[in-house]
Amino acid sequence: MAGTVLVTGAAGFLGSHLCDRFIHEGFKVIGMDNLLTGNIRNIEHLFGNDQFQFVKHDVSEYTHVSGDLDYILHFASPASPKDYLKLPIQTLKVGSLGTHKILGLARAKKARVLIASTSEVYGDPLVHPQQESYWGNVNPIGYRGVYDEAKRFMEAMTMAYHRYHGVETRIIRIFNTYGPRMRLDDGRALPAFVGQALRGEDLTVYGDGSQTRSFCFVSDLVEGIYRLLMSDVTEPVNIGNPSEITILQFAQEVLKHIDTKSKIIFEPLPEDDPKVRQPDITRARQLLGWEPKVEREEGLKKTIEYFRNQHELFH
Ligand code: UDP
Fold first, then answer.
1. 203 within some domain
2. Ligand 1, from 247, 248, 265, 271: best to mutate by most atoms within 8 Å of Cβ?
3. Ligand 1 centre from 83 Cα, in Å?
4. What Cα–Cα distance (Å) separates residue 230 from each residue in 60, 112, 168, 225?
5. 111: domain range?
6. 254-268: per-residue pLDDT in tens?
7. What's the total number of domains in the chain?
8. pLDDT surpasses 80 at 314
């Protein structure tokens, strides 16, 4: 066995893909999730695999794992704006108290820990594209603040454990990612647009759709996470796809892929919605030799195919 990995948020979109990858690499994987926003169906195929064990637990509470642990991937958190607006306290708790528990566990087990931070630490950015050296523009008391500040606290706590206790830490700043196993009802642009198009409903673009995002396909992200974990890089690293697009163009792209009578309609822009977002991935390129490989055309096709087969599409 290559070692033992604990994945928190294992039943989530990214967590479940990470479980798959580490099992494929020959690790024993302990998947932990309290199933608040995660879906057990994402890891159902791993039950019965003797490399995999599932533990239902909320990492905001004291977290025990018996035996040796080599790596921890801390991915537990509500992660879509709709989810964290609905679950503000849990979002703050898992990013702060949960991270504290995970860092304590890493210290006790002498495990290397990678924590999932986010492009949201840059807030509504005044620097474009965003480099890791940018400190961000976050409204601490806005509705998104519960996520953004929890993740900023998470980074601060992680660096403190690294500097004060010598824990081996890695920090990834994840930009918008998409792919199979996203939740159709998570409120994000891609599942919203694809779900609406497949049901023949109009696509709800918020604001005038001129805000930009840069979408990374999940397999590219997982490769970046794997490389960062196995590297010796302790400073934060952006992982995302620099191919930037407006949300209106993105909705139009979705419509090109799906035969539907849906049109685009405009709805009010949510509070503190970032106007632009694009990762500067120079650091990932130089230190990890990583860059994304999957074009949006190909990634969108695979993701739409996945959503077509979801039976809750019409519920
Ligand atoms: N958005 C939209 N229509 C929707 C859902 C989202 O226009 O039905 C917009 C949202 O306001 C934001 C962008 O799409 O500007 C990306 O939103 P998402 O929730 O996917 O992630 P974010 O990058 O804001 O965290």
1. no
2. 247
3. 13
4. 26, 9, 11, 9
5. 4-177+217-239
6. 999 999 999 999 999
7. 1
8. no
